[in-house]
Amino acid sequence: MSSKLTKSCFLICILIIGCNRTDNNTEVIENEYQESFEISVTNNSTIERKDEAVYLNMSEVRLKHPEFNPNAFVILSDEKELASQANDLNGDGEIDQIVFVADYSPEVKKSITIRYAKSGTKKREYQKRTQAELSHKVGGQFVNREYEGGTFRNVQYLCVPPEHTDHSYFIRYEGPGWESDKVGIKQF
Description:
It is a single chain. The protein is α+β, with helices and mostly antiparallel strands. It has two domains: about 35-115, Sandwich (Immunoglobulin-like), CATH 2.60.40; about 130-180, no CATH class. Helices cover about 20% and strands about 40% of the residues. The chain has helices at about 5-30, 60-65, and strands spanning about 35-45, 50-55, 75, 80, 85, 95-105, 110-115, 130-135, 135-145, 145-155, 175-180. It is elongated, with a radius of gyration of 24 Å.
């Protein structure tokens, strides 16, 4: 077989495999999440809304759809999956809200489909778009309420020492650092 023919066959196989994956995604979602309901979301403003967060209160969802499972759901707009998550706002172990993000043209009403499985847990993975850090210095000491020496170490929590004040150079960024695909911080 000539190398030109081999390359052509290879490219055709890639195209076929790629097309099948795209077509099967809808089937996979329908097979995993058999139940569904629709909601409408309206952008009444005259400006475009990009990555607008929409919050659904779980008690309101459960009033209309008591069998809804917040541990196994997917949200779709025009058959395209939207990034979403379930939130336990008060830490009691129960889901309080569902949030998803979508783009909205000015003065538009969109139909959103929420598909779910009645039981089980199914986690969806989305591209990470944020980063946060909290770090403080270690290996130095406070001198006249300013931290001298040491290096920054990232931590999960921080109990601020009594010597700390603003601009003591103990906490990087003077607090938590946060960045996203829209907003960033720069250390000088």
